[in-house]
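Session log. Operator J.P. requested a structure for one protein chain; no other inputs attached. Running the standard single-chain path with C-alpha cell output.
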Amino acid sequence: MAESFLMEPWQRQFCETYNLDTQYVQLLDPVTAWLQKQTEQNSPLCLGISGSQGSGKSTLAGYLKAALVQKGLRVDCVSLDDFYLSRAERAKRARAMHPLFQTRGVPGTHDTTLAAEVLARFRGQQSVILPRFDKSMDEPFSSAQWQHCNSLDVLIFEGWCLGIKEQPEQSLTCPINQLEQEQDPDGRYRHSVNRFLKADYQPLFAQLDKLIFLNAGDFSHVARWRLEQEQKLRLSGAQSRRMSQQEITHFVQFFQRLTQWGIQTLPAQCDVELRLSAQRDILTMTGLH
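Structure written below.
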C-alpha cells in the first residue's frame, strides 16, 4: 500500500506481530485520535471494548494500548475473561442454580467482586493487580502470574458482553437455539443469567468512561470467527487441545442470546461503533467526534 511507509516503527511491528494488513493501522487513525482526546478530558480513563467472540477485541485493545504508550501514558489491558470463576466455583454455582453454569462464559460465571475491586483501585489511582485466566486449563492462573501495575492513566477493559443491559422479561420466554430448547426448557438458566447481568454486571459497566462496540452485524459470523481463533491458538501452541467445529457450534450457543441482544441495543448505547464485515474488516465508524 502506497501510504505504508508513513507508518511508525511500532505500528509496523504491531502489524507484523499480529499478521495484520497495514490498512488496519490507517483505518484506526480516527479511533486513536478520538481516544487521545478522551485521555485529555478524563483521567484516569476506563475504556471498554465490547464485541462478540472473535471480533478482534483483544487485538484492538493491544493496538490502542501501544498507541497510548507512545504518547507517554501508563496503560494496561484486562479482559472480562480474566475474571472467570474457577471450575470448582462454577460447579458450586451449577449445583445451586443450574447445571449450565458449569460452562464459563455468561454473566454468573465471573468473579464480579474481584472486578469491582480492580476498578475501584484503578479509579483511586492506586496500584492494581490484573488477574489472568488460563483457558487451556480452564482455571485462573496462579496469582503469582497476575499482572502487577502501578497506578494507570488508562485501563482498557474488553469483554464480549460489556455494556449490554439486562433483557426485558418477555424476551426470555422462548428458547432461541437448541441448547436452550433442550437444556433450559423452563427458562430457569436464562432468567438466572439475566438477573446476574442486572445485579452484578451493570455496576461494573457503569465504571466504563467510554465504550467502543465492535458490531459483528450478524450472529452467524461468530461460530466461524471462533473457529478461526481456535485454529490460530493451535498453530501458536497456546492451547493444548483444540475444540472441533461441532464443539464450537455448541459452545457459541451459550453466547447467542446476549450477543444478538447486544447487536440490537449497543449501537444506541456505545460511544463509538465499528461495524464489521463478515471478514472482520471495518465497514463504518460512528461516534468519532
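Operator note: The beta strands are 45-51, 75-79, 128-130, 133-134, 139-140, 147-149, 154-159, 210-215, 272-276, 282-286.
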